[in-house]
Write a structure and sequence with these properties.
disordered C terminus, disordered N terminus, alpha+beta, 20 helices
C-alpha cells in the first residue's frame, strides 16, 4: 500500500509557525480601528500609525500594526507614499533630547560602557527601529524592499531621503548577508514561477521566449545559479548564467545560438560567466555578486574537476558614451589625431556589417578601449565602467578585448560591439583584489596592455552611406 506523501518536518514546522503568526496578527488587527476599514489611510494616518507602532510593546499587536501599515502604504496614492517617506526622513530621526543628554554625559568625562551605550542608542534614528518592526509583519521583508525601490526612484529629486536610504542599506546589509543566502541551481525542472522570473529579470542578454530559456538551462554544457533568501523564497536576488566550453569565447552570439551543438560537460575545460543579473532594485548597493561567483566556481570545480579556466564574457556598457565624448573633446589626451580620424567610420551607418570599414575601425577602437580601462578615470579616480569595477574589484584580470563581440542593437549602441573577458585565476584573485582595493591597480594581460601602446593607422573612409 502506497503511503501518502507528507511534507518534510521543516516545511510542516514553517507552515505551523506561519499559521500561528497569522492567527495572532488577525487577533491583533481586530483590536485596531484601522483593521476593519476599507478606506485608504491618509498620509497623516500613515505617519500616526508609524508612531503608534514604535510606541507599542506587545508582540501580537506590533505585528498587526506593522502589517496594517505596510498594507496601507501599498494601497495609498503615490503622493501619500512619498509623504510617508519624507516623514521617515524628517520626523523619525534620532530623539534629539535623548541625544543631547547622552552627548553631554560623555563630554563631562563619563566614558563608562553604559554611557557610551546610551549615546550609541540615542544616535540611532528612530526610523531604523520602525523598519525593524515593519519587518516583523508577514511579507514584511519583501514590502520593505519595494519601499526602498520607490525611495531610490525619487532620491535625486528628494535628496532629503539620503539618510533614510543609508538606514535601509545599513539594515539590509545585515539581513541579506552571505550567511542568510542560499545558492540554488536553476534548471529546466525548476518551478515555472521562478523560470518566468528568470525571463523577466534577465538584464544583459534578453531571453526571447521559452525555447531561448531552455537553450540556456537544459543542455549539459549550460548552468544557471541564483542566490535566494528565506524571506523571499521564490525570488532570486541575483543569478548567473554559465556556458561550459572548450576555450575562451570572443563573442556572445555562438553561445546563445539555438542551433548550436552542445558538448558534454566532461569535455569542457572553461566555465564562462556570460550574464549576471540583479533582480531586486530595492536591494541596489547590497553586494551579492562577488559571493555568487566565488560560490559557483567552488561548486563547479567540485562537480567538474576537468574545468581549469573561469572567465566572463562581459558587456562594456559605458564605453560608447565615453568614446563619443572623447571624440568631441579636442583637448583629450587619450585619443591621438590618427585615432580620431579612423573612428569617424563609427558614424557611417552599418559600419559593423561592412568588412572593410570594420577592419579599419578595429585597431583604433581596441586601442581606445585599452585606454578606457587602463587610463581613463572618473572625477573621483575610479574606473568608468560599472562591470569593470565589479569584476576587477572581485580580483579578476582584464584578459582580452573582443572586437564586435556583441553585434546586437544593444551591444552596438552601448559599446560599439565591444565585449571583454575577465579571467578569474584562482591563485591570483586575492592579490588582484588587494592591488585594486588599495592602489586602484588594474590587473590586465600583456595583450591588453599592448593594445594601449599600439597606434592605429589613419585610414579614413568618407562619411558616405554604405551600399550593398
Amino acid at each position: 500500500m502506497n503511503r501518502p506523501k507528507t511534507a518534510p518536518v521543516s516545511e510542516r514546522a514553517s507552515t505551523f509557525f506561519n499559521d500561528l503568526l497569522n492567527t495572532l496578527t488577525e487577533r491583533g488587527r481586530s483590536l485596531l480601528s484601522w483593521g476593519n476599514s476599507d478606506t485608504p489611510l491618509t498620509r497623516v494616518q500613515l505617519i500616526e500609525l508609524g508612531e503608534t507602532l514604535l510606541s507599542r510593546r506587545g508582540e501580537a499587536t506590533g505585528v498587526a500594526l506593522a502589517r496594517t501599515l505596510l498594507e496601507a502604504y501599498a494601497n495609498a496614492s503615490r503622493e501619500d507614499r512619498l509623504a510617508f517617506l519624507d516623514a521617515m526622513a524628517e520626523q523619525f530621526g534620532p530623539d534629539e533630547a535623548e541625544l543631547t543628554k547622552a552627548i553631554e554625559a560623555v563630554r563631562n568625562g563619563n566614558f563608562k560602557a553604559s554611557a557610551v551605550s546610551r549615546l550609541h542608542k540615542a544616535a540611532e534614528p528612530r526610523r531604523q527601529e520602525l523598519i525593524r518592526r515593519l519587518n516583523l509583519a508577514p511579507g514584511g521583508t519583501a514590502s520593505l524592499v519595494k519601499m526602498r525601490e520607490e525611495l531610490l526612484a525619487v532620491l535625486r529629486e528628494r535628496p532629503q531621503l539620503a539618510d533614510t536610504d543609508d538606514d535601509f542599506v545599513h539594515l539590509f546589509s545585515s539581513w541579506f548577508n552571505r550567511g542568510f543566502l542560499v545558492l540554488r541551481r536553476i534548471d529546466w525542472t525548476t518551478p515555472a514561477n521562478i523560470l518566468e522570473k528568470i525571463i523577466r529579470y534577465e538584464a544583459v542578454h534578453a531571453i526571447e521566449n521559452w525555447d531561448d530559456l531552455r537553450n540556456r538551462l537544459a543542455p549539459p554544457d549550460r548552468r544557471c545559479y541564483g542566490f535566494f533568501h528565506p524571506q523571499l523564497v521564490d525570488e532570486p536576488l541575483i543569478f548567473v548564467e554559465v556556458a561550459l566550453t572548450r576555450d575562451i569565447p570572443p563573442a556572445i552570439a555562438p553561445l546563445l545560438d539555438l542551433d548550436r551543438k552542445a558538448i558534454g560537460s566532461d569535455e569542457a575545460t572553461t566555465a564562462v560567466f556570460y550574464s549576471i543579473s540583479n533582480t531586486q532594485r530595492g536591494l541596489g548597493g547590497i553586494s551579492f555578486g562577488n559571493f555568487l561567483i566565488k560560490q559557483v566556481v567552488e561548486d563547479l570545480k567540485r562537480e567538474l574537476p576537468n574545468l581549469s579556466t573561469f572567465v566572463t564574457l562581459s558587456p562594456v556598457p559605458g564605453f560608447a558614451g565615453w568614446l563619443n565624448a572623447e571624440r568631441k573633446n579636442e583637448a583629450s589626451t587619450l585619443l591621438d589625431s590618427d585615432q580620431r580620424a579612423t573612428l569617424t567610420n563609427l558614424d557611417v551607418p552599418g559600419w559593423a556589417d561592412d568588412p572593410v570599414l570594420a577592419a579599419r575601425v578595429e585597431p583604433a577602437l581596441l586601442s581606445a578601449a585599452a585606454a578606457y580601462f587602463l587610463t581613463a578615470r572618473t572625477s573621483r579616480g575610479g574606473l568608468i565602467d560599472p562591470v569593470a569595477r565589479f569584476h576587477l574589484g572581485n580580483g579578476a584580470r582584464l584578459e582580452r578585448l573582443n572586437f564586435l563581440g556583441d553585434r546586437s542593437e544593444k551591444g552596438l549602441q552601448q559599446a560599439h560591439g565591444l565585449m571583454v573577458n575577465y579571467l578569474y585565476a584562482l591563485d591570483k584573485i586575492e592579490s588582484n583584489h588587494e592591488a585594486y582595493a588599495e592602489k586602484r591597480e588594474v590587473a590586465a594581460s600583456s595583450a591588453v596592455r599592448k593594445q594601449l601602446i599600439a597606434r592605429p593607422q589613419a585610414d579614413v573612409v568618407p562619411l558616405a552611406p554604405v551600399t550593398s
